[in-house]
Amino acid sequence: MVRPYDLFELCRKGDAKAQRILYDLFKARLMGLCRRYTRNRDEAQDILQESFIKIFRNINQLESSEKLESWMKAIVVRTAINQYHKTKNQSLLFSSVNEIQENESVYRVDLDQVTDVDLIALVNSLPDGCRMVFNLFAIEGYSHAEIGEMLSISEGTSRSQYHHAKSLLKKKLNCQNLEHYYEKFA
């Protein structure tokens, strides 16, 4: 078994076996992070692959192995945001009412059977701008000022997007008689 520090140092030296071990250790956690920022698994896999390329290319910039996981997560988030910028028109952060209604597919679950997968599906059903802001603020803990800078929007727009996301989630949960579950999102 390779110790974390040794694994980190071997990866810094470009050792392919060490890189594979690091990939295997973190791929599931980072894939979960990618899934929160994308609509489908294929997009998430693309972001994961691009993120690992950046991780291995830039691992020499990291000074210690203790910061490795948080540094890798930050790379994944930035890669997801960059992908978002490439594919979305920045002037249309709010989806039209029709698009929101189309996204509200019948999503019925029994409260006893609510899983993380169900919750992720609810968040993923949000319009893109709302989903990005919700994930960055509620899940990752970025401030609205930081989110505004990352997404090239104003701090006020970030706050508005977050409020809109919470309203949509509450509405979706109300439609399913899961409104008390809303508190986990709030």
CA-based gyration radius: 18 Å
Biggest pleated sheet: none
User: What is the N-to-C succession of helices and strands?
Assistant: HHHHHHHHH
Question: Which stretches of 5+ consecutive residues score pLDDT under 50?
Answer: 90-109
Average per-residue pLDDT, rounded, comes to 82
Structural class: mainly alpha
Helix content: 55-70%
Q: Roughly what fraction of the amino acids lie in strands?
A: under 5%
Number of strands: 0
Number of helices: 9
Principal-axes shape call: elongated
- The end-to-end distance, rounded to whole angstroms, is 42 Å
List keywords for this structure.
mainly alpha, 186 residues
Describe this structure in words.
With 186 residues, the protein is mostly helical. It is 67% helix and 0% strand. The chain has helices spanning 4-12, 16-36, 41-58, 68-87, 97-103, 116-124, 128-139, 144-151, 155-175. Helix 1 packs across helix 2 and helix 8 crosses helix 9. It starts with a helix and ends in an 11-residue tail after the last helix.
